[in-house]
TrEMBL record:
This is Transporter. Residues 32-47 have a biased composition (Basic and acidic residues). It comes from Cariama cristata. It is found in: Membrane. Keywords: Glycoprotein, Ion transport, Membrane, Metal-binding, Neurotransmitter transport, Phosphoprotein, Sodium, Sodium transport, Symport, Transmembrane, Transmembrane helix, Transport.
Length: 729
């Protein structure tokens, strides 16, 4: 009998062990050479590998330089343009301060629990979105692909908005600002104000005509807008350079891109509070309209805002958390980032309403002056009697309160003739009630307010630089949600993939910098993400709670965090959050069905927006965006269900272990040791070589969809390298 036969017999008699930790604990202390052995795959060592629990070997996966850098990355991703131009609009539209109540409730019910869930699965499995859901169940691997598709769609048009901000930023270094006054047109006889600008306003004209040079319909492309094309190219170059080294490059930029917007918002808040009328705007914001709060529409819009504000379903949250250590307190991170996001929205709302209050006060003063002049003319021609006017009223320096007093008297006395007088009620509240959001807020209303600021170019530079940084922070997370899963799954070089992704996105994004590009941005914003992301997050919740197992997941959390999470999350994940998400999905579908599909087109002749329905091809594009985004889910499910792809051909389900790390398993190794479980005696099997042993999954065993407690349920056998002769021992 060979001298090592006892060792071989011991290996055959040992029961199959399910974890690397247990295997390593059963090795002889003298087998140090075994632990230091390496497995070469394709003549090179795998670089992107994990550390299993119990391994004291350093993890070779990229990691954050510090906890602060990671928090800033998550804050930069979740805090985006929507916090500045979407949340204030919803607050104004849905009951002012009363809107904060449903928002906070829904943040606690679906926001924090689902954000915590994504952080936890990313940190536990240490893969991007594709690898995470493929790990839990290969049949649900399509969830990760769907997230990547949605991220790509959003990145296409989101970077266009950054391009717009870059254009305004570049135009802000001049005094007066180019959108301060309407341009003059000269002909042979005289000079006059541009009619399109005179009918609208200077900032509106500059946005639609100078910046976008917009066409009158979606079907009228009008060719490329070269100014915006250059800005879009600059935006993609910035993103590419920041992301080319992954978190090693983007993480350092986060210190500026995540913190600078807060500096600007605080500066704007302090400056805004010193402006005349800012208190009126803030008072208008926080005046609760409790009757509106009870409407279902308010809760639906609050839930949608919570959902998108935290970046749920995009994969960026999972990607960022996958670079954390396993024992990181991701529960603390989830609560911290969620409330930072909320307070950022409130801070941005304070700034917006302070500035809009100032703007409303200026517009109201102009209204008072213009209508006071009308009253003086009516007094001169005898249409109004001087006896109506109180004696203390001085029209040369009339206040808003005095004007409204005169207005009410005239309306009461001249009740039948009042409409023909052409007088307007000049109320600040009327101006503040004109809800604006998105580009209308950032590029029209806010820019108009800044023209009245002292040193307006400085504030304009700060504002649009803030928008660029907010956009870049979100873009980093969005691109990471595409790059990380693909790199983890297909083992491609991150630098090459990043460059290719940015190049492809730029060339596709040229459709957004046509003269009709703004209409395509609205189309993608409305249809490419909302429904697909809701479905993705519902499936994520089901995958963790029903397929992986909520009890097992709670045990994993206890193992990672060092303490048991509150049972609150158990009930939220298992019952409440899925129900709320399903209701939100149904409500969104109903809302989409009731709202006629279309867009607001800018009509040059009337200088007004006009609603247009999408043409047939436009409807096809809208439907295709939603279908393409969610299509990977059923495709991957059917491929896995019908076994059209062999799991042993290098997929994530085919792994081996080396020195406590997950690595790819070589395909079709010769001399597979199935003989060890088919009753062959030890003498019929080559002896093991302790310098080259690996742990390998049993060939021919059934493929399991789930990995109990993070491992395959069938265990691993200690196998030898079949081509090593016994005499070499």
């Amino acid at each position: 009998m060979p001298k090592n036969s006892k060792v071989v017999k011991r290996e055959l008699d040992d029961e199959v062990i399910e974890s690397v930790k247990d295997l390593l604990s059963n090795e002889d202390s003298s087998d140090d050479a075994f632990k230091k052995s390496e497995l070469m795959v394709g003549d090179r060592e795998e670089k992107d590998v994990d550390v299993e629990e119990g391994s004291d070997v350093e993890d070779e996966r990229p990691a954050w330089n510090s906890k602060l850098q990671y928090i800033l990355a998550q804050v930069g991703f979740s805090v985006g343009l929507g916090n500045v131009w979407r949340f204030p609009y919803l607050c104004q539209k849905n009951g002012g301060g009363a809107y904060l109540v449903p928002y906070l409730i829904l943040l606690l019910i679906i926001g924090i629990p689902l954000f915590f869930l994504e952080l936890a699965v990313g940190q536990r499995i240490r893969r991007g979105s594709i690898g995470v859901w493929n790990y839990i169940s290969p049949k649900l691997g399509g969830i990760g692909f769907a997230s990547c598709v949605v991220c790509f769609f959003v990145a296409l048009y989101y970077n266009v908005i950054i391009g717009w901000s870059l254009f305004y930023f570049s135009q802000s270094f001049q005094h007066p600002l180019p959108w301060d006054q309407c341009p003059l047109v000269k002909n042979t006889s005289h000079t006059f104000v541009e009619p399109e600008c005179e009918k609208s306003s200077a900032t509106t004209y500059y946005w639609y005509r100078e910046a976008l040079n917009i066409s009158s319909s979606l079907s009228e492309s009008g060719g490329l807008n070269w100014k915006m094309t250059i800005c879009l190219l600059a935006a993609w170059v910035m993103v590419c350079l920041a992301m080319i080294k992954g978190i090693q490059s983007s993480g350092k930029i986060m210190y500026f891109s995540s913190l600078f917007p807060y500096v600007v918002l605080l500066c704007f808040l302090i400056r805004g509070l010193l402006l005349n009328g800012s208190v009126d705007g803030i008072r208008h914001m926080f005046t609760p309209k409790l009757e509106i709060m009870l409407e279902p529409k308010v809760w639906r819009e609050a839930a949608t805002q919570v959902f998108f504000a935290l970046g749920l379903g995009f994969g960026g949250v999972i990607a960022f958390s996958s670079y954390n250590k396993r024992d990181n307190n991701c529960h603390f991170d989830a609560v911290l980032v969620s409330f930072i996001n909320f307070f950022t929205s409130v801070l941005a709302t304070l700034v917006v309403f302070a500035v809009l209050g100032f703007k409303a006060n200026i517009i109201n003063e102009k209204c008072v002056i213009q209508n006071s002049e009308k009253i003086l003319k009516l007094l001169k021609i005898g249409n109004l009697s001087q006896d109506m006017i109180p004696h203390h009223i001085n029209f040369s320096s009339i206040t808003a309160e005095d004007y409204n007093l005169v207005y009410d008297i005239i309306q009461e006395v001249k009740e039948e003739e009042f409409d023909s007088l052409g007088l307007k009620s000049c109320q600040i509240e009327d101006e503040l009630n004109k809800a604006v959001q998105g580009t209308g807020l950032a590029f029209i209303a806010f820019t108009e307010a800044m023209t009245h600021f002292p040193a307006s170019p400085f504030w304009s530079v700060m504002f649009f630089l803030m928008l660029v940084n907010l956009g870049l922070g979100s873009m980093f997370g969005t691109i990471e949600g595409i790059i990380t899963p693909i790199v983890d799954t297909f083992k491609v070089r991150k630098e090459i993939l990043t460059v290719i992704c940015c190049l492809v996105a730029f060339f596709i994004g040229l459709i957004f910098v046509q003269r009709s590009g703004n209409y395509f941005v609205m189309m993608f914003d409305d249809y490419s993400a909302t429904l697909p992301l809701l479905i993705v997050v519902i499936l994520e919740n089901i995958a963790v709670t029903r397929i992986y197992g909520i009890d097992k997941f709670m045990e994993d959390l206890k193992d990672m965090l060092g303490f048991s999470p509150s049972q609150y999350y158990y009930y939220m994940w298992k019952f409440v959050s899925p129900l709320v998400l399903l209701c939100l999905l149904v409500a969104s579908i109903v809302q989409m069905g009731l709202s006629p599909p279309g867009y607001n087109a800018w009509i040059e002749d009337t200088a007004m927006e006009q609603f247009h329905s999408y043409p047939t091809w436009g409807m096809i594009v809208c439907i295709s965006l939603m279908v393409l985004a969610i299509l990977p889910v059923p495709i991957v499910f059917m491929v896995r269900r019908c076994n059209l792809i062999d799991d042993s051909s290098g997929s994530l389900a085919s792994v081996s272990y080396k020195r406590g790390r997950i690595i790819k398993e070589p395909v079709n190794l010769e001399g597979d040791n199935t003989s060890l479980i088919h009753g062959k005696s030890p003498s019929e099997v080559p002896s093991p070589n302790f310098g080259k042993n690996i742990y390998r999954k049993q060939t021919g065993s059934p493929t399991l969809d789930t990995a109990p407690n993070g491992r395959y349920g069938i265990g691993y056998l200690m196998a030898d390298m079949p081509d090593m002769p016994e005499s070499d021992l």
